[in-house]
User: Fold this.
Amino acid sequence: MKLQVKKLVLASVLGAISIVLSVTPIGLIPVPNLSGSATTMHIPAIVGGIIGGPFVGALVGLFLAFATMNLFFALGVNLFACFIPRILIGVVAYYVWIGLKKGNIAIFASSLGATFVNTIGVLGLAVVFGNFTLKQIIPIIALNGTLELIFSAVIVFPLVKILQRQFPLK
Assistant:
């Protein structure tokens, strides 16, 4: 029971951070393309997946999806493109981390894999649902995807190392 409470607290705190990132300039880094910004909002979901497991990661991703839903409405993008990839961020992070035996390289790989799922998932589903063309999203993936991969690799690693010591859940 105590472990479940810790996981719920972790998911809530990281979800709150995702919400704060979604309404502040810290969560959206300006870039010169159709999207206008690269995101760091997915980073708490990655951390949640690695530290708390797939349920915590999915829950933080769900917080993120609700926090960014208004952006999708404004662009007329299908909400599946908002929710599905965001929920999968932490799940992918966890399973990549476990699959690579929980080491330092696994943290980097998890952050990269989860970021890839977010960027490709959101934009890919937007193309599938006819909101954008493939030609429109290629520059977004090239610039935003690269920046988001770098941000997540640099930010997730130290956060996970600190939280693993301070918030042992497993």
Observations:
- Residues 2-23+38-166 form a domain with the Arp2/3 complex 21 kDa subunit ARPC3 fold (CATH 1.10.1760.20).
- The chain has a mean pLDDT of 90.
